[in-house]
Write a structure and sequence with these properties.
single chain, 241 residues, eight-stranded mixed sheet, binds NADP nicotinamide-adenine-dinucleotide phosphate
């Protein structure tokens, strides 16, 4: 079996996901660039290869069962196992998202990608992760998913967003459930908060670079075997739930 560490990053064609792939590639890892749009995926892979990373494209729509099944086959055929899964793909959903006027379809769409997509991809990839000596799962959450921050006056949690913010709270809760079920295995599963980064997601209004946002995911992807599981972390340490 290959000694090289194998990672898959979902939503890796741009933004924070691309920088996670670049950071893991710089460690000498083989990195799957999970992305649904062929042109953007191949452009990202070419850029990563040019930078010296061992990158490969993985066609992947996290909302699509068949696409996820095909992605498992591709990763298995290419590497035989998976060491690290970074569930980074995410959407904010259509605005406005005031609770009293939101279109329920908006909430459903966001949860389908940000929560169900993570469960779908994780469960499909688990057999490959179980073949790794030190499997890690990193779920890209957000500080806006912290109920403590949402209910603390003066905390910066952005606009009211009844689809996006609760989807990250849901994802945090899902992360805890995975950690509990997997606590007697060698799989560590944690949620990451990248901070407010300038990406397409927010019209590039974020104050941090995508590379800065990627750092916490890279740290959780490279945890030692005695590292934490079932936690929620940013660059400063633990984020309140
Ligand atoms: N930027 C921030 O300030 C911030 C803060 C907190 C948390 N986050 C989280 O960080 C993650 C990355 O966000 P970002 O800021 O880098 O945003 P971004 O630049 O918009 O990137 C999002 C990525 O997710 C992909 N994606 C969306 N739906 C997908 C699907 N169904 N299947 C596969 N890929 C899909 C996008 O692919 P396409 O190109 O095909 O759309 C894109 O590659 C998200 O989970 C986001 O919620 C971001």
């Amino acid at each position: 079996m290959s000694e090289q560490t194998i990672a898959l990053v979902t939503g890796a064609n741009k933004g924070i996901g691309y920088e996670i792939a670049a950071g893991l590639g710089a460690l000498g890892w083989r990195v799957g660039v999970g992305a649904r749009d062929e042109e953007r995926r191949e452009t990202a892979v070419a850029k990563l290869l040019a930078a010296g990373a061992d990158a490969f494209g993985v066609p992947l729509d996290v909302t699509d069962d068949a696409s996820v099944t095909d992605a498992v086959r591709l990763v298995e055929g290419s590497s035989g196992r998976l060491d690290v899964l970074v569930n980074n793909a995410g959407i904010t959903g259509a605005a406005p998202q005031l609770p009293t006027s939101v279109d329920p379809a908006t909430v459903r769409t966001v949860v389908e990608t940000n929560v169900i997509g993570v469960i779908r991809v994780t469960n499909a990839m688990l057999p490959l992760l179980r073949r790794s000596p030190s499997p890690r799962i990193v779920n890209m959450s957000s500080g806006v998913g912290s109920l403590t921050r949402q209910t603390t006056p003066g905390s910066e949690t952005g606009p009211i967003a009844v689809a996006y913010s609760p989807s990250k709270t849901f994802l945090n809760a899902v992360t805890v459930q995975y950690a509990k079920e997997l606590q007697d295995t060698n799989i560590l599963v944690n949620a990451a908060c990248p901070g407010y980064c300038a990406t397409d997601l927010n019209g590039f209004r974020g104050v941090r670079t995508p590379e800065q946002g990627a750092a916490i995911a890279i740290r959780l992807a490279t945890l030692p075997d005695d590292g934490p599981t079932g936690g929620f972390f940013d660059d400063e340490g633990e984020v309140p739930w």
